[in-house]
Amino acid sequence: MTTDFLKGYDIQYWLESCPQGYLMDTEYGHQPGEREPDVMLRDPVLREQAVRTTVQLILGERCALAASSGLINAAPDEASKRFLATQTLDEARHVEVFTHRLLDLGIKNNELEEVLKTFANPHLVRFAETLLEVVDRKDFVAGVVGQNLILEGMAFHVFEMMQAGSQQTNPKFAHTLAGTIADERRHVGFGENRIGALIREHPERKADVEKLQREMSYHMLATFGAAFREGPSPQEMAERLAKAGIESKGGQDWQGVRLGEATPEELEQVLGDTILKEFKKRLQRVGVEYQTPLVPM
Ligand SMILES: [Fe+2]
Ligand SMILES: [Fe+2]
Fold first, then answer.
1. pTM
2. Alpha-carbon distance 177 to 162, whole Å?
3. What is the pLDDT of residue 174?
4. Which residues pair with 254 in a beta bridge?
5. Closest ligand, as measured to the CA of 180
6. How far is CA 246 from the centre of its chain?
7. What is the distance in A from the centroid of ligand 1 to the CA of 290?
């Protein structure tokens, strides 16, 4: 079996582009010396919202770490094993940088697991469990679709939206996100390349993969529904930031929506729509048909 299509996914490429490239001279993902804006630590509402958001990022990244490392031993070829080894380190780094953000927000090391439990979105927990069940069965095809196309396709756009929203208000967090976005782009690229070839070899796997996609999409939409209903509205956040002299209103546009002024419903809608639109395109490219999930209540 030839794995020429994995040329851009070897360790040498990873070394040059990532640790020796865009991560050069960073410190926990951001520029050395950058800090959370003071208001994030002073204003209890903003701080709690930052903690809540960061907790979901850590849980998503812990899932990606467990999945990418678990898939190494399920991979049918050596090139994929080596790529997944680089991805495992990327995911461990993501867990670390987001965990570090919680410490920067004043969470103590010994409070960490309790904070994760308190703020965990139960739908995100189900989403992660669904993926890890497949990985535990050593089902490489479904595992890569679940992780590299669905989980990371979702993470990619969530990070992008957060990065657009924090460019003005929190450059440190925006820089941390920029590095993770670059990593996720590579992970999604691997997923598409590898799965496209495997689905052509094993068309009989399509039905399982479509079932997993439908289930994970359901949990993902439920995650967003719950996430945008919790915590302060974007308008309240903007007002609280403005009081501290940080302007966010009229700021960044993302997918045609002005982030500082949108309602929670508008944000949920644009994020869900963007992710699903991209899912459909990606799945089509690998020869899998998108299955519309039930609408979460
Ligand atoms: Fe990640
Ligand atoms: Fe990733």
1. 0.93
2. 8
3. 96
4. 257
5. 1
6. 26
7. 23
